[in-house]
Amino acid sequence: MTEGYHEVTYADDDKYKGLWNGDGKRHGLGVLKFADGSKYAGQFSNGMNSGLGVLEFPDRSKYEGSFSDGKYDGYGVFTKSDGMKYEGEFRDGKINGAGKITFHDGSSGRPRQEGTFQDRKLVTGGKQTAAINQAQEAARDAQEQASKAEALKA
Predict the structure, then answer these.
(1) Would you state the pLDDT for residue 74?
(2) Where are the alpha helices (DSSP H) in the chain?
(3) For 5-14, what is each residue's pLDDT tens digit?
(4) 26, exposed or middle or buried, with CB in 10 Å at 0-12, 13-18, 19+?
């Protein structure tokens, strides 16, 4: 496949529209719609969602933020369909690092679910204002990249 914009439907019914590199891999901005109803819009690198983007699931849960090699990695915001939200750091697809959980009622639980997380569990409590701000900024930037990807045309 040549470098540039292409639209492709795969054998499993996943669909991609966006930019490709000269090696025939998704690269740059694009939108990947999965057969299960999930959708990723944002940046790709050498075939994988890498950089900033938004991943939406059929149940209306979504992740907005940074990806690396197809996994949540860096700062971002994950919002579940019930309104529960985690803002903070992710590593290798998991909640890992500084962040905060906010439940659908706006509370952060007792004990407060804010601090340092390791493998999705709170290990050290404490305010994480800087990490939350970075996650919110990454989410805004990811939304911007997703909008640009959605607007791409041949």
Answers:
(1) 98
(2) 129-151
(3) 999 999 999 9
(4) buried
CB 33 within 8 A of CB 12: no
Beta carbons of 17 and 31 less than 8 angstroms apart: yes
Token pair 């989410």 is found at: 139
Between CA 47 and CA 136 the distance in angstroms is 26
The residue written with tokens 């090696």 in the block is 23
Which H or E run contains 19?
Answer: strand 15-20
CB-side neighbour CA atoms (13 Å) of 80: 10
Tokens matching residue 86: 């985690």
CA distance 61 to 55: 9
Which of 65, 126, 62, 128 has the alpha carbon at shortest distance from 91? 65
- Summarize pLDDT for 44-80 with one digit per residue, the tens: 999 999 999 999 999 999 999 999 999 999 999 999 9
What pLDDT digit, counting tens, does each position of 94-149 carry? Answer: 999 999 999 999 999 888 899 999 988 999 999 999 999 999 999 999 999 999 99
